[in-house]
């Protein structure tokens, strides 16, 4: 199978060379908790219509050569509205966009709350992408803040130093996104140039793929801005063991920004009742007569989850800070034998897999 793009990159594949020149972005240190609103954290959704432009230049590199990220995208040339999250391939009826291979550009301008922009309030402002296929470069107000390779995982950056101190000025987020598949991507692919000028236009290339689904591309999951205190809960790891009468919830919490802090934890059931408490960065919570997490159709009350409230308190220059995070927790055990996959000791039958996003059913 092959996805075709005419007027493609010049021979030698500048699209791929540009990817290699950018390099592979290293994973950020620490954790990446899902952005949830709590008493100490705010969240701003950036979904909706973004400005969009595909780079149809022969080398697919005009956006980088002309530095489109330094100004509003509409000032670089014609743009269209593009929903986020979505795949850009099927939004319009333009076949050149449906089969496009190379760099596309997104842009969103957003006004941030004043309380986020005062740099003396010990507030972090973080920009997070749920996923974007496949290679992303992100700028905020013309300043590059991150790169990410991989279309299936979230990535984020602390943009506090860029946006704070400039109240009333829109925050301009620019994303360059490349959907070219290489032998090193997942899924893999390769670029093939058609050099017979009697049969193909100049620079005509084909994206070869060896899988049975369409290579959708775009910003595929929500984009959000969220805040934390400057000292914050960075990661929470939870593992569980259980029987019918008792469960043990082991936890480990990491905090970034200070080494002087205190932690307290409360585990609540779905009625809000506290069933266990703990303190410190690591420990174990004991739950009597637990409600176990079960898959759908394996129990009359499937998917039961507790809520683990983690509260961190610290001081920065004499100013008290508090960060609160709520983590849903399901209590269950998983075991694999030579013939069975067991959840809470019972065999689980897998079904409903291998359905692509464009399957009829």
Automatic annotation (TrEMBL):
Gene Ontology CC, one term: extracellular space
Domain Glycoside hydrolase family 2 immunoglobulin-like beta-sandwich positions: 231-332
Residue ranges of every copy of the Glycoside hydrolase family 2 catalytic domain listed in the record: 334-360
Keyword Hydrolase set for record: yes
Organism domain of life: Eukaryota
Chain ranges of the Glycosyl hydrolases family 2 sugar binding domain: 45-229
Keyword Hydrolase: yes
Main location per the UniProt record: other
Bilayer-spanning residue ranges: none
Location in the cell: Lysosome
Gene3D superfamilies with a match to the protein in the record: Galactose-binding domain-like, Immunoglobulins
UniProt-recorded Gene Ontology molecular function terms: beta-glucuronidase activity; carbohydrate binding
GO biological processes: carbohydrate metabolic process; glucuronoside catabolic process
Annotated signal sequence range: 1-25
Annotated keywords: Glycosidase, Hydrolase, Lysosome, Signal
InterPro entries xrefs: Beta-gal/glucu_dom_sf (IPR036156), Galactose-bd-like_sf (IPR008979), GH (IPR017853), Glyco_hydro_2_cat (IPR006103), Glyco_hydro_2_N (IPR006104), Ig-like_fold (IPR013783), Ig-like_GH2 (IPR006102)
Family: Belongs to the glycosyl hydrolase 2 family.
Protein name: BGLR glucuronidase
Native source organism of the sequence: Steatornis caripensis (Oilbird)
Organism lineage string: Eukaryota, Metazoa, Chordata, Craniata, Vertebrata
